[in-house]
Amino acid sequence: MSTISIIGAGGMATAIAGRTIKAGHTVEVIGRDQSKAQAFADKLGAGATTGTYGAAPKGDIVILAVPYGSAASVVADFGAALGGKVIIDITNPVAPDLSGLVPPSGSSGAQETARGLPAGAHVVKAFNTLFGPVLAKGGRLDAFIAGDDGEAKARVATFLGSLGLRPLDIGALHMAQTLESLGLLMIGLAKNGAGTFDIAMHVDIGLAR
Amino acid sequence: MSTISIIGAGGMATAIAGRTIKAGHTVEVIGRDQSKAQAFADKLGAGATTGTYGAAPKGDIVILAVPYGSAASVVADFGAALGGKVIIDITNPVAPDLSGLVPPSGSSGAQETARGLPAGAHVVKAFNTLFGPVLAKGGRLDAFIAGDDGEAKARVATFLGSLGLRPLDIGALHMAQTLESLGLLMIGLAKNGAGTFDIAMHVDIGLAR
């Protein structure tokens, strides 16, 4: 069991923290607003602690659970304090009118966030295709990951597995572009063909044999 | 039962034609090389016919089952002959090194193809997230669709349903960008976490209730 640090206190942070605690890990929550972070930790219970915003997080895995629009400034606020950490980027950088993705062409939110990190820190894209309420409900869900550092990706895969999720590696960090598109696709499906956000994407393997 | 026209004779054309015939539809195959098209029709059997390349296809639904690199020239060769047709674009416009998608930023293969069509023709993106062997095997698979014309999309959904697929509408034609990203994601998954192209993406609806 490990200590997992979570920056943020929204719906996704809550869903991920809940599963993380249920799996027996210790959660450290970190926020710009210390009283809000404390309230979040108190609500989580199970020994959840708060860290100091901008200082080195306790966990080797740090989940960046803030909106994409805030990710760059949060990473800048931590600076060298994130050195050596595995950063999980969960963001869906979609335009407010859902017309597309906001990172520059040929890049992704995860790659943009990676630019701001200190040496030795590695970004792994994960969780962005899972909607909070579905994640919170439990059950074995498929969790796609993308990243450039094999060891960091292996550690995230182990963490996801410990939460009862099935990690599915889709390749290097530039493939975060496809995961962010998949996030937008699922929002489109929720608003059109499915009519609900209560959906999850699942991969069937071994159909044609 | 309808007549479905298919332009192309590759693996996806074969898989789609097979399911279409099995569903009781009549298939018309069309290709630049008439003898190749005839051989394809003969192999399909079940009353499959050949059409004339560049002339009006018999089917109201025309499946453009050629590589993305050929799609624009094929559409230009048909010109006004595609007027009033529902064109299903199945292409995965991925870079040869799988580093990304080749259509211009903010567009998709489907949107680029739509530019070349005559008035009254409507493009619906479909089939691009299904690998040929999995599609050929049969079984109820999820088939994502995107398109701007509601009636065209409804007709494609009915056609897909007749093949035993579950049509899932993800929105307007610009959402083809996300479907083409999903195609690339699945190729990435096949080459990384799954280790096989024998995979299909499935949506679970109603998990959190």
UniProtKB/TrEMBL annotation, chains A, B:
Matching entries from InterPro entries are given as: NAD(P)-bd_dom_sf, P5C_Rdtase_cat_N, STEAP_metalloreductase
Segments passing through the bilayer? none
- Keyword Transferase among record annotations: no
Question: Keyword annotations for this protein?
Answer: Oxidoreductase
Pfam families in the record, alphabetically? Answer: F420_oxidored
One molecular function GO term is: oxidoreductase activity
User: Which part of the chain is the Pyrroline-5-carboxylate reductase catalytic N-terminal domain?
Assistant: 3-93
Q: What is this protein called?
A: Prephenate dehydrogenase/arogenate dehydrogenase family protein
Upper taxonomic classification of the species? Bacteria, Pseudomonadati, Pseudomonadota, Gammaproteobacteria, Enterobacterales
